[in-house]
Amino acid sequence: MGKTLAQKILDAHIVEGQPICGSEIALKIDQTLTQDATGTMAYLEFESMGIPRVKTERSVAYIDHNTLQSGFENADDHRFIGSVAKKHGIYFSRPGNGICHQVHLERFGIPGKTLIGSDSHTPTCGGIGMLAIGAGGLDVAVAMGGGAYYITYPEIVGVRLTGKLSPWVAAKDVILEVLRILSVKGGVGRIIEYFGDGVATLSVPERATITNMGAELGATTSIFPSDETTHAFMKAQQREADWTPLAADPDAKYDRIIDIDLSKLVPMAACPHSPDNVKTVSDIGKIKIDQVCIGSCTNSSLLDMLKVAYILEGKTVHPDVSLAIAPGSKQVLNMISKNGALAKMIDSGARILESACGPCIGMGQSPNSAGISLRTFNRNFEGRSGTKDAQIYLVSPEVAAYSAIVGYLADPRELGEMPEFKLPEVFDINDNMITLPASETDAGSVEILRGPNIKPYPKTSPLEDKITCKCSLKVGDNITTDHIMPAGAKILPLRSNIPEISKHCFTVCDADFPSRAKALGQSIIIGGANYGQGSSREHAALAPLHLGVKAVITKSFARIHKANLVNAGILPLTFENEEDYERVLMGDELVIEDLRAQVKNGNIIKITDKTAGIEFNAVLDVSDRQKDILLCGGLLDYTKHHLG
User: Which residues are known catalytic residues?
Assistant: First the structure.
């Protein structure tokens, strides 16, 4: 029986384990990326391993998240990351060069290679046939040191695309349709692989939009074949030598197949406050809007910008609407400045932002109170925009641009005939904002530059034999990493300072949680289904670790966050009987006896709720390797032990 494309790449990179669905495998990692909101901690972790130089084929450090410099903290982090990169063999993409996923797609991604990045939208590079996976910073640090990356061998869901998108219907509508079908939990433990005749009708930037938002499915990653369209893109980027054709075998078997006829799709939007709350634009109706933001790693390519400029040309942004546009990379910004597209945007009254994540991560452009904002981004979680009561809709650039002109949510098909938008045969290439690392000979003389806000990794210790502590917090289903560890302009600069950033942990849900957890010393958190969905930020595990959280007991976990909890030495437990979730209350005293023996000898952990006078079982669904990590007190301690 033939293999899917994902299986081919997985199987070629397995260094430990067997390609059996549901079993743990270890993968050789060819490339890594970090960004500045997660990078400082990742490089502190890498330094602690004592390895002088990265062992990957290519590692790149990007500055794209914390570019708003209202204090010294972000600038100090950038300086630290730049010095670490220079010393340890890492390419450094300076602030202003662009968003990590857009730049990596343009300049570094290679079909058939493996990439892990400390950002959940790393699967963007699946648009060129790369096996690109979001991971926690510590996992990336280990990979940079030459270690393997461990995942559960996934199911492969095939999405068969047929037909061709109608005029003014976009790639964004494709992934919104997949989210409508599968939900934000539907991709957990799975890779989403696109195939079929319809694939050839989609450009690389369109494919990258789809794989980017596959993160919202909870999927391990998403991937497209590498074909002549990929070849043309890489040739235009003057990287033709990196291209190789890749596709699934004709007789490949998928665990599930979803059929999507591109010609039947219509403009859609994800309504507040979840990417899978998808409706058609016509069903939502002509709601008045206050703000439009175009950009992010999802929709900031040259192709997106050309479409937006065409719609805006000769028109003026509605007086009640603020329109902000952020090109995704310096390459894109340079090219639209030369071809006149940028002038059309400026003439229309758009506010042009730097090539960075910006509003998507809550760095500026927060909407007005209770404002309605249309965004071409990938997440619309409550409060993520920086305005707690804002109503955020996720839409295509075509819907966004047209709506910005008319002042309400509008269907761009009303524009009539759509011209053909073509990518150039040659992109402008200028990598002068990518700093190369020092040679191995010169690396010893490079000084690491640390600012006062950069604090060490939280203190860890081996797993205790008995835990007696209170439940410090109980939350419901679909808790995101934005709930656990909020982003935004005020909090992101604290990413290098776990003691300080922990003061904001879970404050979206309960303003008193940090002080309560700190006062308790040790505690346990109770959560619902799909706990920890969203970002790869390991700070959502490190802040609870600093606050003394010993275990999180939920109905189910999102993939990356569960791995981050293990890496931090926090027990990720699920209720054996979900009815027990209702019985355990905040403030209850919980006791786990003979914990080390229970972890070593099985997957069932017996817990006593002394307050309620009940006992219940929780499941520790981890591999034997992850058990060893937990017993050591976390991945850093485990890795140091094994390196030693």
Answer: 64-65, 119, 379, 535, 537
